[in-house]
Amino acid sequence: MKIKLLAAIVVFGSLAVGSANANAAEGDAPNQGLKLSPDLLNLLRAEMREITAGVQGLALSLATADWQSIQETSSKIRASYILEKQLTPAQLGELEKALPEQFKHLDAEFHQRAERIGAAAAVRDPELVVFHYSRLIESCANCHSLYASERFPGFVSPAPQGHHH
Ligand code: HEC
Questions:
Q1: CB of 16 closer than 6 A to ligand 1?
Q2: pTM (predicted TM-score)
C-alpha cells in the first residue's frame, strides 16, 4: 500500500534516468532534486493534483464528521498511483534505485500519515484525525521544500537581511 505513490514516482524517476540526457538538452521541466523528463513531470503533477483534491475533501469531511468519507479518501490516497499496473516487479526494483533515499522516506511518511487518518476516522476520534491531518500537510510541505522548491518558490528562505542603519 505505502509504496503506491512511490511506485508511480519511482516510475518517473527511472524513466527520467533513461531520458536524462534528452531532458538536459531540452533544458525543460524545471524542478529541484529529481531529474524528470517533461512527460514524467506532467504525470507526477497530475498525481499530485489528484492527491490535492483528496486532501481538500478531507477538511470538509472532518468539519462535518463524515467518517466514512474520511476513510475512503484515506484509502484512495494510500492507494494513489498512475502507472503501477504497467510495471513489472523487476522494473519496480530498478526504479526504486533511481530515487533518493530521502524522497522515499518522505513518501513513506506521507502514506503512513494518510493511513493513520483513516484509522482515526474509523474510531471516530476527531482530535486524532486533526492531528494526523496537520502532520499530513506537513509531509507535503517537507517533500516540496526539498524536491519542488522551484515549483513552489515560497519554500526558499528569504535572503538574510543585514541590520538597517
Ligand atoms: C515525496 C514527495 C512529495 C510529497 C509527499 C508530496 N508531493 Fe506534491 N509534489 C512533489 C513534487 C516532486 C512535485 C513536482 C514539482 C515540479 O513540478 O517540479 C509536486 C507537485 C505538487 C503540486 C503541483 C501540481 C501541478 O499541477 O503542477 C501540487 C498541487 C502538490 N504537489 C500537492 C501536494 C499535496 C497536497 C501533498 C500532500 C497531501 C503533496 N503534494 C505531497 C513531491 C511531493
A1: no
A2: 0.77
